[in-house]
Design a protein that fits this description.
The protein has 3 helices and 4 strands, in the order ββαββαα. It is α+β, with helices and mostly antiparallel strands.
């Protein structure tokens, strides 16, 4: 078991994770993690975010749905800058 100290950094308290644990968990600096308390223990889990292909995203769209009024206004708007048409 590794041990570490909580340290005050500015207005926050920092938990330093030893490099050996980072290697085992495949974590690096700036990895986003989630924190939870379970039965009095702090649980730190890497956050994963889904990655979608364009086809997967388009499959979720219903092309028969009506557009909102603000969308229709945007579709019919004239260019206001140097947009490529």
């Amino acid at each position: 078991m590794h041990t570490t100290k909580l340290r005050k950094v500015g207005g926050s308290v920092m938990l330093s994770i030893p490099p050996a644990l980072l290697d085992v968990l495949h974590l690096t600096e700036n990895t986003q993690v989630g924190l939870a308390v379970d039965n009095g223990q702090l649980i730190v889990k890497p956050q994963t975010f889904p990655s979608y292909t364009l086809d997967e995203l388009l499959a979720q769209c219903n092309s028969s749905d009506d557009f909102a009024d603000e969308d229709m206004e945007w579709f019919g708007a004239q260019p206001v800058g140097k947009e490529l048409l």
